[in-house]
Backbone:
């Protein structure tokens, strides 16, 4: 590869800095938060719906059911890591 093409390649495919990765992570979390709050009835409701659908799909579509269980666990973990003040008692089933 000639020098100018190598330089162009290096500029195009540079690893993002730590601050850029953190910014990207924050952006993704903000998008997730917006979707959960504004389009799914909130974190607890979305988690409850995912668990309910997982139960309903367990026999006919076990892979989809497992995915929904994973989503429910992920949402719970996001709330715990973010130290969100959420009454999880509704989720005890």
Residues:
């Amino acid at each position: 590869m000639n020098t100018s093409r190598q330089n162009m390649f290096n500029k195009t495919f540079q690893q993002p800095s730590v601050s850029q990765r953190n910014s990207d992570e924050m952006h993704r979390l903000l998008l997730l938060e917006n979707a959960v709050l504004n389009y799914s009835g909130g974190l607890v409701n979305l988690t409850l719906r995912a668990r309910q659908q997982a139960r309903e799909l367990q026999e006919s579509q076990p892979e989809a059911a497992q995915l929904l269980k994973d989503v429910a666990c992920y949402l719970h973990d996001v709330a715990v890591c973010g130290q969100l003040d959420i009454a999880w008692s509704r989720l005890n089933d």
Notes: Residues 42-93 form one domain. The CA atoms of residues 58 and 65 lie 5 Å apart. The mean pLDDT is 77. The chain is about 70% helix and 0% strand.
